[in-house]
From TrEMBL:
Residues 174-399 form the SGNH hydrolase-type esterase domain. The keyword Signal applies. It comes from Viridothelium virens (Speckled blister lichen). Coiled coil: none annotated. PANTHER family: ESTERASE, SGNH HYDROLASE-TYPE, GDSL-LIKE LIPASE/ACYLHYDROLASE DOMAIN PROTEIN (AFU_ORTHOLOGUE AFUA_2G00620). Keywords: Signal. This is SGNH hydrolase-type esterase domain-containing protein. GO terms for molecular function: carboxylic ester hydrolase activity. The keyword Signal applies. InterPro entries: CtCE2-like_dom, PCW_deacetylase/CE, SGNH_hydro, SGNH_hydro_sf. Residues 1-20 form the signal peptide. The lineage of its organism: Eukaryota, Fungi, Dikarya, Ascomycota, Pezizomycotina.
Length: 438
């Protein structure tokens, strides 16, 4: 019953973000975001993109171009005003979210080769008397297909950049359009992956998700040249711009230059099940086992959470029925790693892990594979048919439900406490039923 859903999903996955009209409380939501483009004065202090005080979040390449879903940056600063110059590789009309301290996110469109002033004295929460104290600035790219390139950061006279400490814990999220936030109101920053990472509040997180991508390393949904089995090892994603910038010679992600993930969450396979890929259950299971093995080869101490695929809903008689995808195939994957916890035989060298197959694609009950680190996250029953929008992806509410359940799962399973205790996580979601008598 669910077989039609992945088909539709794959067919739609390559479309660029729709210019949809968002209604809230019956009114068209304003999207005329403030124009922040400026020319800055030479008296400002300019910092290059490789300044050690700038912490990049998610995957960025050596040219400071952002990749995958919801990448961003964070730094501390003193002084009063902040501007950022975006390089030529920035996509035009790219909607970014940014914020001052723990205030609500603000939105603006940026373009290639332009400078945008993002902190002024009228910025939300701005404190005119705090010039000599360190304040926090953060930025995130909202759309999974568009990137920014950081050319430089500018501070008004007297200001300086300050490096902020990173959180001790790191989370990695791997997926397709369902995790990249495709068709959600604010895309990447409305996805369950964002809601989970940002919602935990005290972790660094990175979302390697792209619409249409398969797990299996095949051309998927028409325009994804590789599956996650291959692409996850690359800095860049499977977008058109990645092909334009790098061709087929995409840079490897330097795992050794970044903290190991403590928890890896994977939600992949809906496109493998689609008719354009039509990967068999047995092949999907084998590929998934290889993928997990390779991830654990890179990060031997990681705990890995595997999503069941919620699939689609169909009307049956007078009710609705959920039809999940690859149910047994994914249970078999988890089963392959079950048993008492044992260490992995080797780890850390990602050039070996990338193609590892000898010990890592052949899990049997007597392989010294490393066990007990794969956990099944059963998504069945979290979403209902109306938590999926007309384009077969979760609504904003659906994303919030998934994020909330996963947060609780991680809290119960690993004892992690929630660290977001005030600042908003999902921007612009308060409009539902926000009026009395409405
Ligand atoms: C940043 O890049 C410049 C020029 O490429 C180089 O001279 C400088 O040493 C780099 N700074 C850091 C902190 O890496
Ligand atoms: C953008 O391209 C122009 C023309 O090629 C070049 O002069 C300029 O330095 C580039 N700027 C950036 C930020 O890459
Ligand atoms: C700003 O970004 C939004 C979201 O991607 C887009 O719909 C809108 O057209 C952009 N606006 C401009 C002026 O580029
Ligand atoms: C970038 O801006 C500079 C200065 O305005 C201009 O000379 C250059 O042609 C621009 N490059 C691109 C690629 O737009
Ligand atoms: C503004 O900053 C000053 C100096 O750090 C601080 O004493 C004051 O409490 C801040 N005001 C607000 C409203 O945060
Ligand atoms: C910031 O520090 C400088 C030098 O210490 C001082 O001259 C200035 O008055 C201070 N500004 C504020 C707003 O406290
Ligand atoms: C998918 O593959 C199966 C065999 O594994 C075949 O029976 C089925 O017809 C294929 N479906 C499509 C839509 O290609
Ligand atoms: C990783 O393994 C490759 C292939 O065996 C080897 O060439 C390389 O030197 C290793 N790198 C490190 C950092 O150990
Ligand atoms: C595979 O496992 C065997 C048995 O534990 C071990 O001797 C061998 O070195 C491993 N191979 C690699 C490439 O690590
Ligand atoms: C998997 O392991 C079995 C038993 O050790 C071995 O016979 C077989 O060749 C292995 N297959 C691969 C693809 O490594
Ligand atoms: C997943 O949850 C559904 C609904 O609660 C349940 O029917 C199913 O048995 C569960 N699957 C596994 C493998 O636990």
């Amino acid at each position: 019953m669910s077989s039609l859903i992945p088909l539709i999903l794959s067919l739609l996955a390559f479309l660029l973000p729709a210019d949809g009209t968002i209604l809230q409380n019956g009114q068209v939501r304003p999207t005329n975001y403030p124009d922040t483009a400026v020319s800055i004065n030479e008296a400002w202090t300019t910092y290059p993109p490789n300044s050690s005080q700038i912490s990049y979040k998610g995957r960025w390449d050596d040219m400071y171009i952002s990749w995958w879903s919801a990448p961003g940056l964070k730094f501390g600063f003193t002084g009063s005003e902040v501007a950022i110059s975006f390089g030529n590789y920035t996509d035009d009309g790219n909607l970014i979210a940014y914020r001052y301290g723990g205030e609500d996110w603000m939105l603006t469109n940026v373009t290639a080769n332009s400078t945008h002033q993002l902190v002024t004295s009228s910025t939300l929460g701005y404190n005119t008397t705090a010039a000599n104290t360190t304040r926090t600035f953060e930025l995130r790219v909202s759309n999974w297909a568009l990137g920014v390139q950081i050319d430089s950061v500018h501070l008004s006279p007297g200001g300086r950049l300050v490096q902020l400490p990173s959180y001790d814990r790191t989370v990695e999220i791997i997926g397709d359009s369902l995790s990249a936030g495709q068709y959600a109101t604010l895309e990447g920053i409305a996805s369950w992956a964002w809601g989970f990472g940002e919602g935990l509040g005290n972790v660094e997180f990175s979302i390697e998700a792209h619409p249409g991508i398969c797990l299996t390393d095949i051309i998927c949904s028409g325009n994804n040249p590789h599956g996650q089995l291959y692409q996850w090892f690359k800095t860049s994603d499977t977008s058109y711009r990645a092909t334009q910038i790098y061709g087929s010679n995409q840079p490897d992600w330097d795992f050794s230059a970044h903290p190991a993930a403590d928890i890896v969450v994977i939600n992949i396979g809906t496109n493998d099940a689609g008719s354009s890929a039509n990967v068999s259950d047995a092949e999907f299971t084998a590929n998934y086992i290889t993928f997990i093995s390779r991830i654990h080869c890179v990060w031997p101490d990681a705990q890995i959470v595997v999503f069941s695929l919620w699939g689609g809903w169909s009307q049956q008689g007078d009710t609705w029925v959920q039809g999940p995808t690859y149910v047994q195939a994914i249970e078999n994957v988890v089963q392959a790693f079950s048993g008492p916890s044992t260490p992995a035989p080797y780890g850390g060298n990602s050039s070996v892990c990338q193609t590892a197959s000898a010990n890592y694609s052949n899990v049997t009950s007597d392989t010294p594979q490393g066990r007990g680190f794969v956990h099944y996250f059963n998504t069945t029953g979290i979403l209902q048919h109306n938590d999926i929008g007309p384009l077969y992806h979760p609504t904003d509410v659906g994303h919030v439900k998934l994020a909330s359940h996963l947060m609780q799962f991680v809290k119960l399973k690993f004892g992690w406490m929630f660290g977001a205790i005030g600042p908003e996580v999902q921007h612009e979601t308060q409009y539902w039923n926000d009026w009395p008598n409405n």
